[in-house]
Fold this protein.
Amino acid sequence: MKTLLIVLGVLFLAALLFVLIGIVSPGQQSENRVEINAPLDFTWDIYHDQDMLKKWVPGLDEIKLKTRKGSVVGAEYELSIIDQAGTKSTMHEKITTFDKPNRFGMDYSNSMLTGNTEVLFEAQGDSTIVIAKNNYKGTNIFLRSMFHFFAGKITEQTTNQYADLKTLVETTYSEKQAAKPKMPQPPLLESAESDTTKAIPDEQVKVADESEN
């Protein structure tokens, strides 16, 4: 009986701690930073290409524009996402910053969380530094506690996403550079001996022949 009471007490304290974390937690923050070997404008364009987005955001199935115009402040989108178990969910996004090609921001929400992301694009020579700052929290006490304990896993997932973005941008840029037509090579110059002979005036050649005779 005493052992049972101890176990129940421990479970009660764990449950209480779990609830308290959900009450006091302001949400989670994370940052992703990646250097991409491609120019600034090219990196920005790939980041915002919806067809390309599906290649580096896992589970992204469909993107629907919900406002009249996209890629501007105030534009809203509805994203359909399918997880590894095959469960489909919907994410709502609203653009809050669109300062091409240096700064992008958005708010997002679904049934489990709300948050915002700010992405900075900085030129570094011929490369681009991409820095994503993420803030999010659960929509209820239970989910806020869950996100508190799984924050490391979520950060790992977003880190992998930006690593995939880096690979995608660099591969696409290399393919584009390779597809460019090569500049024609200038014609080879004639030999120095030939050039020297041509440079001697006819009068000098004639004089030399007469002196030999």
Observations:
- The helical segments are 2-24, 40-47, 50-56, 141-149, 151-179, 192-199, 202-212.
- Strands lie at 28-36, 60-65, 76-82, 88-99, 103-109, 113-124, 127-138.
- The chain has a mean pLDDT of 85.
